[in-house]
Amino acid sequence: MAYENRQANASEGNAVVDAPDAKGSDSSPPHRDRNAEQLIRHVVEELEEDIVFGYLHPRERLIEDDLRARFNLKRHVVRQVLQELEQMGLVERKKNIGALVKFYTAKEVIDLCGVREILETSCARQIQLPVAPERLAELSAIQQQHAAAALASDLHNAFRANIAFHKALFALSDNAPLTEMIEIAAQRAHPIRSLSMIFPHYLEKAQDDHLKMLEALRACDHERLVELCRDHLVPSRDAYLEQHRRRAGKPEAAPSVAKVAAPPN
Of 7, 48, 194, 215, whose CB count within 10 A is highest? Predict the structure, then answer.
């Protein structure tokens, strides 16, 4: 039912976006281009959330005609949307099949989460303590937005607030190239996160982790912050791996964090 509601809401107010008219006025094409970009961004974000919330499953096909009908788009615009989702690592294309939601093998999940751990713990170590009060206040305000959305079972705002919290947290390192790499890796992990986004106990743990990260920052405790950043990656990884093993008929325990991402000596 939630997926059908999202489909209905997505089509309301969306105009068909066509190719720019070569004979149009000088002022018309830029306006139409801006509208197209905004609509493409809206559709990309809608499909991104469908993947994160598990409405679209790994290996599920994204059929152009279905997307055209749902969002009231021209075919070339749908293809631009799929291309952007592919660049984000959320969709993969296969010959004679088309676009599918990205599927990760168990090894790929472990490798990706290992990379994220290396990036995020390194970034946490680079945060200069103590943090300025105004930056802590900004981070705390985002945490409260996330908590309120989670309490209201508002997955859209919980998801967006979670992204904003981690972006603000890692921005405290003042290392723009590193934070950019963290965002790219986190985005590629979206297909892994569906199970950890829809169950209340996972959302509650995320809230608890955010509060503890704030406490570690206030206490100027680098080691605690690094530990929390490492452990924060575990639930989504383990939930995906457990589902993967069940489908394969191999219900084994997930590897420990230390075994997943510890760099070689």
Answer: 194
